[in-house]
Design goal:
19% helix, 3 strands, 3-stranded antiparallel beta sheet, globular, 95 residues, alpha+beta
C-alpha cells in the first residue's frame, strides 16, 4: 500500500498539511504517478494550474470523452495540494 493509512488522513482542508510547491513534489509516490508511465491518469492543466485525475471515459462519435476530477488531497501522503476554492477560481477564469 502506498502513502499512509486512511485513519491518518486529514478530515478537512483545515486539518491538512498544506503542501507548497509544484504538483508531484509532496512525495515520491505522487511524483512517480505523474511521471511514470507517461500516459498517467493524472493531468496538470497548465493554463489553469489545476491537477486532475481522469476517473472515467465514454466513447463518442468524435472519439473518447474523458471525465476528470480535480485532486484536492494527495492520494498517497494526504497533503493538501489545492483547495476547492482555488479550483473554482481557476475554472471561473477560464470562461
Amino acid at each position: 500500500m502506498f502513502g499512509r493509512s486512511k485513519k491518518s488522513w486529514p478530515s478537512s482542508s483545515q486539518d491538512a498539511k498544506r503542501h507548497e510547491g509544484p504538483f508531484g513534489s509532496c512525495c515520491k509516490s505522487m511524483h512517480d504517478a505523474l511521471t511514470h508511465p507517461p500516459n498517467s491518469l493524472f493531468r496538470i492543466d497548465e493554463d489553469m494550474g489545476v491537477l486532475y485525475l481522469s476517473v472515467g471515459y465514454v466513447e463518442t462519435q468524435d472519439g473518447p470523452g474523458w471525465f476528470d476530477q480535480a485532486v484536492v488531497f494527495c492520494p498517497f501522503c494526504g497533503s493538501l495540494l489545492q483547495t476547492a476554492e482555488q479550483v473554482q477560481r481557476a475554472a471561473d477564469r477560464s470562461h
